[in-house]
Amino acid sequence: MRLDPVTLEIIGNKLGALTEEMCLTLQRTSRSLYVKETADFACALAGPDGTFTAYPRGIGVSGFVGLNVRTAVERAGPLSPGDVLITNDPYRSGGLATHLTDIQLIEPYFHDGEIIGYGWAFIHCSDIGGRVPSSLSPTNDEIFQEGLQIPPVRLVRGGERVPEVAALLAANSRTPDANEGDLRAMLAALRTGRERLAAVVAAHGADRVRAAHADLVEYSAGKAAAALAGLRDGGYRFVDLLDDDAVSPVPVRISVTAHLAGGALHLDWTGTDPQVAAALNIATHGRAHAWITTRVLALICTLDPEIPLNGGIIRPITVTAPQGSVVNATAPAAVGIRHATASRVNDALGGALGQAAREVLPAASSGLVVPVVVAEQHASGQNVQVLEPMVGGTGARYDADGVDGRDSGISNLSNNPVETVETEIGVRVLRYALRPDSGGPGRWRGGTGLELSFEVRSDDARLLARGLERLLFRPWGVAGGRSGAPAELVVNEGTPEERRFGKIDMLGLRRGDIVTLRTSGAGGYGDPFDRAVEEVLADVRRGVVSLEAARRDYGVAITVTADGPAADEAETDRLRAARPPADPAAEVGPERAAWDAVFDIDAVDRLVAALFRLPIPRRHARRVAVYTTVLAVLPEGFPRTPAAPDEVAAARRALAAEIDRLTAETAGETAG
Length: 672
What we know:
This is Hydantoinase B/oxoprolinase family protein. It holds the Pfam family Hydantoinase_B. It comes from Marinactinospora rubrisoli. InterPro entries: Hydantoinase_B (IPR003692), Oxoprolinase-like (IPR045079). The chain is of the alpha+beta class. Helix content is 33%, strand content 19%. It has helices at 5-29, 33-36, 70-76, 163-171, 176-204, 206-229, 294-303, 338-353, 418-424, 533-542, 547-554, 569-577, 584-588, 590-598, 601-611, 616-631, 645-665; strands at residues 41-46, 52-54, 84-87, 102-111, 114-124, 153-157, 160-161, 234-242, 252-261, 264-268, 317-320, 370-378, 381-390, 427-434, 450-456, 461-465, 488-491, 499-501, 507-509, 514-518, 558-561, 564-567. The chain has a 7-stranded antiparallel beta sheet with strand order 2-1-5-4-3-6-7. Strands 14-15-20-17-18 form a 5-stranded antiparallel beta sheet, with helices on one face. Strand 6 (153-157) and strand 7 form a beta hairpin. The longest helix is centred in the N-terminal third of the chain and has 29 residues, at 176-204. The chain is globular.
């Protein structure tokens, strides 16, 4: 049955509203700070084939619209009315779960003995066991260290909770009470979905609802293809880097080639590094998974804001994701910090697709999502809470500045109110503000990062800041726009006890310690010396650009008068007449320019190809060994510390020799 457009619109709106109500039910009845305030959760309605056919627009995590419940349902076996599945296993759920702290519930909705859809809900739980409080650490090297793995099993059977499953969950978490409260909130959300879907079936009939599942997906797929067809056909490649793999100083390479042809988009991730012995891997199962298509989802919804949110949006997208790569990891690879890699995937996709739509895609976002976790030991047990989900700004785009201190690139998490944080965690927030001079200078300025500073008010607290990135390689600019400022993490800044950190696993803190995290700023767009003087002046008045940066980066001289900052027109004219020559390295930052001078794209393509001829378990160690050999030729601290031309030449020779040696060794290897 094909529904007429009016009926389809009516049923589609009702199904969308159903998912919004599910989300409101979940949020208002949840227990944990990260759900009820940060909103790291979502609900959806799936059709009988497992594809999401209705997804909320205004609440919860928006990027998971392309997930599918089919694999999890099939693994659990035949379902009956009143059953509810639970899983958090990225491998056994077919990528529905993306790391172990994301708890997924699925309920089959029946009508006259047949499944007419599935309700889905997920929350990020406070702790699911594992090696560290909050379960997630970048240095975990296999999923067994990340907590309890739950294959798709029944949490509820025939309407009754399965007590053995409940006991198992409680025994494997540092926060069992909070987890139980969130599970009950999800069950309430699923009940809301079941009741509302039954009302839609009663109003329109089961046959029309079944038809709507298929028609809504097909409609969105057609609109998505039409949106992509407006872009310039061709193949577009971009390479970006994670600072390091958390267990060595070696960066992680993300490479994508976007092939556009008549509304179809193929994403080829060949050239991306092998999976790492750390928690940065993504389990996509080689599919057009949410974590490697989120930027495309945002692009399609930008080009067509009226498109219904459902799994049809990703139908025009196909992927090549080499097995055993960081974007298609195989078990038992750790995946807990997969969002850090997803952020860089987003930037790489933006860089590739931006070549096909330069006036649509922005410069690089701040490129990080850092849930700042504080774990405390109380007499009654442990308190593990996300203090703030720290992000930065969005990249500047043609004709518009980036958004300051707000980036919904891979998630639309809310910040936690300071009053709530100080009530539930033993800290005192000293500063939570936009970070001055962090947005990449440009004709249109990149969005600023954030600055969070807090004092620890308890003894023996521990800090986890998973997802720390852009500490080394800065968010890149476009068309002469400059890179944003790198991130910083410092404890007791400006005191004799000052300590600066890169990525951390778990950091012990004492009462009175002051922790400061400054997130990276986003990339700028266009030559900053072309930025309107009044716009620079407005930035100075708002405090997001300093007087020194206005002069240095924008060629705008500003003096402070009794009426506030004012532009010195004569001095500004002089500065802008002597504008510096264009510097391509300024777009990517000095560190990335120095790195690419040694590790150029063609050479690293050869290296990655040779590594993929090795069996999966051998690739990471060999990759690190190659880079370690080459880095030994370069100055300590490279690429922050620049290398002399002769050192660059020697390093390139060493790299070529290592690649030749590895190529010869792997000539007869069969990867697997």
